[in-house]
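REQUEST FORM: STRUCTURE PREDICTION
Request ID: SP-0412
Submitted by: Lab K.M.
Chain count: 1
Length (residues): 320
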Amino acid sequence: MNRRSSQSVVDQVLELAIAPSWSRIGYDIRRRMFDWDASALPRLDGRVVVLTGFTSGIGRATASLLGTLGATLHLVGRDPGRVASVSAELLADGIKVTTSIADLADLDAVRRIAGEIIEQHPSIDVLIHNAGALSRTYTTSAQGYETTVAAQVLGPFLLTTLLLEPLRSAHGRVLTVASGGMYAERLSVADLEMTSDAYDGVRAYARAKRAQVELAREWTRRNDDTVSFHTMHPGWADTPGVVESLPTFHRITRPLLRDPAAGADTLVWLAAIEASELGESGGFWLDRRRRSISKVPWTDTPAGERYRLWNWCKERTGLS
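STATUS: Completed
RESULT:
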C-alpha cells in the first residue's frame, strides 16, 4: 500500500469512528498526516470576503486568518458593540475591514445590508454564512418565523440571492458553516420550522443545518458554474456558543475539543484555494476532505424534498 492509500485508510477509519474524527484528535492526526501548512495558503490580496457571525469563536478566527492572508473583509454582526470592538481589533492588526449591523433572522435587515454590501463591493469573491446559534428557547423573528430557521436558513438564502450578481462577476463561491449534528436529521420541509409547543432547540438546530447542506446542492443544480456552493462542518470546537448552548457536552468533552482556529481551518482553506482544487460544487467538507451527507439510510433525502425546500424558502423570503 502506497503512502496516499494508507493516508486515505486512516482518514476513513477516523471518520467512521466519529468522536475521534470530529475532536482535536482527528484534526491533529490529519494535519500532520497530510502536512497542512496554513502559511502556505494562497494570498487573498484584492479579494473580497463577506463573513457573517464574526465576533467570537470560529467566525472570529476565520476573520483573523483570512485577513492575515490579505483579504478585504466585509463583516456582518448583530451586536453593534461587539461589531465595533472586534472590527477595531482587526483594523489594528492591519486587516482591511468594513462592517454591517444586522440580525440575519430579520429579512428586512438582510435586504438592507445586501444593499450596503453591493454599494461598497460590486464584486464579491467569497460569501461565508457562519452566523447562527443553538437556542434552547422558542422565539420568533421580526417576520414571525421560528428564529433558528429564520437566521440559519431563510436569512442566508435571501442574502445569497441578493448577492448573486456580484458573486458571479468574480466567479465567486458561497460557503456555509453547518454542523455534524445535521447527520441526526433527515430533510423534511413539513417539519423544518418547529412550533412553540413542540420546540426542541437541539433538533431545530440540526434540522436547520441539514437544510443548509441540502440547499447548497440545490443551488448547485440551479446555477451555472460561475458561482460554486459548498458546506462544511468544523468538528467539535471549544467556542462561546458551545459553552452557552451545550454546557453539559462542553464540560464532558472539553479536553477533546478543537480550538477555534482548528475549527476554522477548513473554512479558510475552502475560501483560499484555487477553484480547480475544490472540484464539483455542492461538496460537504470536514478537515479538507469531502464527506458524505448521510451516515445512515434513514436520513437520506427523499425525492423532491430539495425542490420543496427551495420553494419554501422563496415563498417565505418574498422571492416567489
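NOTES: Residues 112 and 184 are 35 Å apart (CA to CA).
Reviewed by: T.R.
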